[in-house]
Amino acid sequence: MSGKVAVVGAGSWGTAFSIVLADAGNEVTMWARREELAASINDAHENTDYLPGIELPHSIAATNDPERALAGADTVVLAIPSQTLRDNLPTFSPYLQKDAVLVSLMKGVELGSLKRMSEVIGEVADVGPERIAVVSGPNLAREIARREPAASVVACADEEVAQRLQKRCHSPAFRPYTSVDVLGCEMGGAYKNVVGLCVGMAVGLGFGDNTTASLITRGLAETARLAMKLGANPLTLMGLAGLGDLVATCSSPLSRNRTFGEKLGQGMTVEEIYASTRQVAEGAKSCSSIRALAAQHGVDVPIAEHVDEVVAGRLSTSELMERFIARDTKAEIG
Predict the structure, then answer these.
(1) CATH assignment of 183-326?
(2) Which are the contacts of 306, defined by CB distance < 8 A and separation ≥ 6?
(3) Which pLDDT value is given to residue 237?
(4) Domain 4-180 - what CATH class?
(5) β 150-156/132-136 pair status
(6) How far apart are CA 241 and CA 260, in angstroms?
(7) pTM for the full predicted model
(8) Which segments in the chain show pLDDT lower than 50?
(9) Residue 98 catalytic?
(10) Active-site residue, selected from the candidate residues 107, 115, 192, 263
């Protein structure tokens, strides 16, 4: 099942997912913020800014014109930084086809409103949950772009829409599963970035596998506590959009969140890290909103709290590790 798909965002993940869609037989138009990047993609069939060295299929075109990007698209994939969604989506909303499905690749919780990305999409674009889907899983962009085998989850409240999108992005190297648990997939995707930051800090401080495995496991417990409090299916957190995404983010040097945390652990400041890269580490943006969401629902989230303190400059990475060890002991389950 193929068709016309618009991908809003020409960063590494938007570009990698465009490759998946093209390999699955779709005609793909990417929207790039900068005209020169769109021209480079069209002329060289390569995104030299974000995925240099990887040839893009010729069925991918790019433009910086929102109307041209969305023209005729029955599926619109959103792959922009999560904290910019509310401001940017109105630029594209007037050009949406009447029944177009909006697919979020974004992983974050909005600052201020504490809304998940699907909730922001529904509110700003004025569309119902049956037209909003999310894709989440262990999907490091460069590996996906190199067509290394990977799996993910396509979630939508309408199971038939999820199944239709599943066919739309099932390529020779990319295997999507379906789910109706949009909330669970989004919380798993947003929270793993925060845990990835924490694991990166531990690596940057020179700690080994015991420390990182402990943080990953306790991070999963935190994620599950909050997601289940909000109404998620606990099995979602054990699957690709939960544990799978968490392991990939925390284990790979390709993960921008782990890399961001590692640089913090090595002594760089948040400002220095931002100045050194054009990539966005969503965990650094969402840790305070996730912390606030947990507080709103009375859920204990020490990793999110401590990461937020480090990112805000109120705590050093070494102090963070000391505080984790000094916390009161208790039973693991319960």
Answers:
(1) 1.10.1040.10
(2) 198, 315, 320, 323, 324
(3) 97
(4) alpha beta
(5) antiparallel
(6) 21
(7) 0.95
(8) none
(9) no
(10) 192
